[in-house]
Design goal:
By secondary structure, the protein is mainly alpha-helical. The protein contains 13 helices and no strands.
């Protein structure tokens, strides 16, 4: 527990501006964007959702949309037919069962089409300020590398890791770990030689340990490239982060 909490403290210093990397202005936009982020990058979702929300700004609007028109907008995100069914379905459920408002309870959120626990915790933590652990692929990979747990089932990972940290820290913890996984501790070739928590990591050496070679593996702002949000928080910009380009800009 002490080592796990120290790793999180170190990551918090590396990523003090860590935030959800999906652009959103309200809980409805966040739940839709999170559903769309399956099997694609947050960057691609952020490049796609402006057109979606401009045309369908409310759950009632999207629930009544022509599926073929929605499919055309969502095509760049991949699996666009299934995603169209999900976002139209969850919009209809919001309009019919929740008065057009996104519910702030886990048990209600997971009843929406396309919304599982991971998506629900993203929404609860970032739209409602209610702590939750987001067990995505990056989180699963890193907590096993950190030896926080050997579990492979997302639900069991959530329970095991949650026991190591106070509940109030869960949302920020998720951001820290996911950001580190996207920028430095990659799946195929982690940049161990450029990792700020290397002395604490039991998996050090699984990736490139040469500092100069490791630096070339860094992604997003750590490697000098734009982040994933078109409209990132000011703290991210103040820290030297750059907004992502809109869809079609090359």
């Amino acid at each position: 527990m002490r080592r796990a909490r120290r790793i999180d403290r170190e990551l918090a210093e590396v990523y003090p501006y860590a935030h959800p990397e999906l652009d959103f202005e309200n809980p409805f936009q966040l739940v839709v964007a999170t559903v769309l982020s399956a099997q694609t990058t947050d960057l691609r979702v952020n490049q796609t959702t402006p057109a979606l929300f401009a045309k369908y700004p409310t759950p009632a609007d999207l629930a009544a949309a022509d599926p073929l028109e929605v499919e055309e907008i969502l095509r760049p995100t991949g699996f666009f037919r299934a995603k169209t069914r999900s976002v139209i379905g969850l919009s209809a459920a919001l309009a019919e069962d929740f008065g057009g408002e996104v519910p702030g309870r886990l048990e209600d959120l997971v009843k929406l089409p396309g919304v599982g626990r991971k998506t629900a915790f993203v929404v609860l933590g970032n739209a409602f300020g209610r702590p939750g652990i987001t067990v995505d692929t990056h989180f699963q990979r890193l907590v096993r590398r950190f030896r926080w747990t050997d579990e492979t089932d997302p639900g069991k990972i959530e329970t095991a890791v949650g026991a190591l940290f106070p509940k109030k820290a869960w949302t920020d913890l998720s951001h820290h770990v996911i950001w580190h996984g996207r920028r430095i501790c990659h799946a195929r070739k982690p940049a161990c030689g450029a990792c700020p928590i290397a002395p604490l990591c039991p998996a050090y050496g699984e990736g490139e340990t040469d500092p100069e070679k490791a630096k070339k593996l860094l992604k997003y702002e750590k490697g000098g490239f734009p982040g994933q949000r078109l409209k990132p928080p000011q703290a991210y910009l103040d820290a030297g982060g750059r907004p992502a380009p809109p869809l079609g800009s090359g």
